[in-house]
Design a protein that fits this description.
Radius of gyration: 31 Å
Shape: globular
Structural class: alpha+beta
Strand order of the largest sheet: 8-9-15-14-11-16
Number of strands: 30
Largest sheet: 6 strands, antiparallel, barrel
Distance between the termini: 67 Å
Number of helices: 16
Mean pLDDT: 89
Amino acid sequence: MATASKLIIVESPAKARTIAKFLGRGYKVEASQGHVRDLPKSQLGVNAENNFEMKYITIHGRGKILTKIRKEAKTASKIYLATDPDREGEAISWHLAQTLGMDVEAPCRIEFHEITQRAVENALSNPRPINLAKVDAQQARRALDRLVGYQISPLLWAKVKKGLSAGRVQSVATRLVVDREQDIEDFIPEEYWDVTANALLPSARGRKTTFTLRLHTLDGKKAELHNEEEALAAKARVENADFAVYGIKRGEKRKLPAPPFTTSSLQQEAGRKLNFTTQKTMQVVQQLYEGVDLEGEGTQGIVTYIRTDSVHISEEALAAVRSYIPERFGAEYLPEEPNEFKGRRNAQDAHEAIRPTDATRTPESIKASLTKEQFQLYRLIYSRFLASQMKPALYDTLSMDIAGNGVGMRFYGEHKRFAGFTSVYEEGSDEATEAAESTLPQFEEGAPVTVESVDSVQHFTQPPSRYTEASLVRTLEEKGIGRPSTYAPTITTIIARGYVMRENKRLFPTELGRMINAMMIQYFGPIVDTEFTADLEDQLDEVEDGSKDWHQVLEDFYPNFKEMLDAAENAIEKVEIKDEPSDVVCDKCGAQMVYRVGRFGKFLACPNFPECRNTKPILNYIEANCPQCGGRLLEKTSRKNRKFYGCEHYPDCDFVSWEMPVNDKCEKCGSYMTLKRSRKGETWHLCSNETCRHRVEVSPAQPEEEE
């Protein structure tokens, strides 16, 4: 008679396949495919009159999955619940235990932070009871979100239009984008000028060193130039002064490595360096976590758990990377003691940061087994982890004052003396940075300095820049709004609802977003208040650590919210959203079509809906002709929301390009040229011929906007 197998229940089929290959005979691994029970979609499901009792039902489509799991459970010698190691995973395990009639206080729950054979086997040796405090924290969050979303959203449907929604976190995120746009519109630029000089310093050996000076003081006071007249006067004084060196200061600057990735910092860096949206980042890193088929190794989870706000690293992983760094880079790159990093307040340090499961598994060694996007993201995670445990980069610095005739100029430069962690990884930035000097000039006190040329440049102060997905995630995290698992779905939701639009990586509020935000501020002020929302997150953390009862959180929240809801229902009048007219005529009924905002942005629609359901995409022509037929080129969007360029005569002309064509031809091979821009604002034309790729600069780099 065959021995009964042990049953392990995980969330995803991909994870189930990976674990099943590790354990082999004696184990069955089934996937719940996420939650199996939830609040009903057709009703509120939270009884505020009866101690916030939650009504759970089997999720539509999960019946067959549960039937299969129950069948396996009946014959299993032991059941292990192996869902993700966070609140949501704990709640899924609790729901499964309830459904299967398991004792939640028995050691049935196993937890691992990476999907490797060693981690899974170790977890099986250390089962524990279900953490009911974590479950309560998840239930409290679910109840809060349901009470807010299911009671404000119908109000918006009735007063504004169908399909709208409000939520605790999404409404705050929308407000941040709207407020930033208002700050930009209210901003009044102020003029200022810089005066710089190219200077010459003779050396002892007769060589001459050229360097750049910046005007610092005039007659002992900080130079502040507000207009052209002041700038020209200062420029004349610089040109006529006799300068000499004084106040030389030499020093050393240490640049420390960044910590390994959290969910938030990974989303930000993947946005900066790889142009990934938050949603795409989470999709790809989920694949790396759940397991990829590696040539010669089989299916392996190659990064640790991906929803984390901790920068903690296990002792085992730390020992492994510290033994690998000197082997690969040399002993001089390894610090004497491990680098330690301070996490954000309330970070769950029982978790680990996102890191590779094996420090010796280099991105290049498994590149053939990964998709392009998987390789890019794994390389980012791997490099950041390695760099986090390497020595700082060292820079020699030099600051020097040069003065004459009441004019003070200043020089600053730095030279990288030891690359340290930067030989592996440098963190991206949303802000403009000045490049360091490659070499430092040798100065002596009192040495005369000859000014060769002086330049004055006009500037204007810049408004705050619009959010990117990366900088919005950073702001949500800094303000304590949401948690690692919520950043990506929050941004996806506010874009899908038409409250925010994404263009050239920047987030803009729509008129609909502004209207809903104004309504939320007027009638539901605390719900869109960042401090109030952050305080609720802190209370949920208190529930998780066992210091607060989850019912109390709801009791403190709901009465005031119900008052706001009742007042809003009586006060809000029906809002009529007027469609923006276009000059396009409906080819079905002859009416003048209007612009409307849908899930995928603006489109043209017939105003006679529902009698006439005609819609059209908005055609965005670019200033270039089709290289194949001479027709006009259109900017289009693929199903995966990626921009490309195609001919207006499609399908008769099948020209298509992922890069924006321009009308210029390559002077070397005759192929059409495409437009390219760098993050620094540099613009150039690049040959579309892969074997040529001739490049012509159009404009030099401009200072980047600051986030």
